[in-house]
Amino acid sequence: xxxxxxxxxxxxxxxxxxxxxxxxxxxxxxxxxxxxxxxxxxxxxxxxxxxxxxxxxxxxxxxxxxxxxxxxxxxxxxxxxxxxxxxxxxxxxxxxxxxxxxxxxxxxxxxxxxxxxxxxxxxxxxxxxxxxxxxxxxxxxxxxxxxxxxxxxxxxxxxxxxxxxxxxxxxxxxxxxxxxxxxxxxxxxxxxxxxxxxxxxxxxxxxxxxxxxxxxxxxxxxxxxxxxxxxxxxxxxxxxxxxxxxxxxxxxxxxxxxxxxxxxxxxxxxxxxxxxxxxxxxxxxxxxxxxxxxxxxxxxxxxxxxxxxxxxxxxxxxxxxxxxxxxxxxxxxxxxxxxxxxxxxxxxxxxxxxxxxxxxxxxxxxxxxxxxxxxxxxxxxxxxxxxxxxxxxxxxxxxxxxxxxxxxxxxxxxxx
Length: 416
Known about the structure:
Layout: E1 2-4, E2 11-22, E3 38-46, E4 52-54, H1 60-63, H2 76-92, E5 100-104, H3 112-117, E6 121-125, H4 129-137, E7 142-143, H5 149-159, E8 162-168, H6 177-187, E9 188-199, H7 201-206, E10 219-220, H8 223-232, E11 236-243, E12 249-255, H9 264-276, H10 281-307, E13 312-315, H11 319-328, E14 338-339, E15 357-358, H12 361-365, E16 370-373, H13 379-385, H14 387-391, E17 395-398, E18 404-406, H15 408-412
Parallel strand pairs: 5-6, 5-8, 6-7, 8-9, 13-14, 13-16, 14-15, 16-17
Antiparallel strand pairs: 1-2, 2-3, 3-4, 4-10, 9-12, 11-12, 17-18
Helix pairs in contact: 5-6
C-alpha cells in the first residue's frame, strides 16, 4: 500500500503491518461488542522527508470525545513528571510581565494545574469533554476544541501571543500537520518556544516496543524528520532531549529561525540516528520481522502456561495492550481478565479481543501465578505497589524488549 505523506506529499509505502485493529482506547461495555471500528494498523516511511506515519487514519472525532478513557494523572510518575516541566517553564520561560502558556491536549490538567496554582495565565486546548471537565475542576482554564489554524488565530485574538505552546504525547496524534503548524505560527510570540514530548521511533525500534503503534499515534518522529518538518513550516529545532516518559521519548523545542541557539545534543542525536539507520525503510522492515517472531514467542509461552494449569492475567490496560493482544490474537482464553486503576475502564472490555477489565483489587484478592505487564512503562511503580505478588512467588511476563518471565527487580528496570 502507498499513500501521500501528510507532511511533504512524498511517497509512503507500508513497512510494518500489525493487521486489522480496533481503536486502542475504544473500551466497550459488554453490550457494545458489535459496534467497533476496525482499521488496518500499518506504518510506512516517507521516501522524501523520512517521517514515519500511519498508513490509514482514524478520524480524530472518533478518537477523542466525551467518553475518552485515558487520564494522565492516574500515574504517580506522570504527576511528578508534569509538575517538573511546569516548574521549568515557570523558572525559565514564563518570566515576562504577563506571560501565557497554551497546552495542546491538556487532558485532565496534569501539567497546567501547577501553572494555575502559580497564578500564571494559561489555556488548555482539549477536545475530550470528560477529561476537560476534570481539568476545570483543578482550576485549569480549558477550551474544549481541537487545535488547528483557526484555533490558534482565535486564541491569539482573545489572549494575545503565547510565550510557550506545549504538548505531551499529543502532537504525534494530529494528522492535519499543516493546519497545526499554521496555528502555532499564528499563536506563538516572536521569541516563544513550541515544546512537545513524543514517543521516539529510535526507542520503539531499539526496544522492540511495537505496542506504541496504534491509531492515536499518527506520526513516529525522529530528530531528522522533525528537522524537515520544522523547516517546511518556518521553524527550527533548537533542542531535542531524551526523557524517560513512555520508556524513552524525545522532548523537542522549536523556535523561529535564529531566535534561539541550537543545543549541541541536537547534532549528537542526528549522528546517533544515522548510525542506527532510522531514516532507512529497511530498518522498519527488519523491525517488522522481529515483532512477528516476538508474537510467536509470546503466544507459545501463554499457551504452555495454560497447558500447565497456570493462571495468567494482564496488568494495565493502556492503549498499548490493545495493540499487543490484537496483533498476537490473545483473548480471554489465554488472559481471562486485565486489571487497571482507571475507573472509566473498569467493567468494560478491551477493544477487539474483549478481555474484561477489572479493578486492581481483583489482582490482590485472588493472585494469579503470572501477570503480563502491559503497562511496562510504569513497571517500577506497579511492581512496588504489587510487591506481595512477587513475594508470594508470582511472576511477571514482559515482552519489551523480548519475551521473558522475570522477577520484580528486573521488571522494574524496564521503565527506565
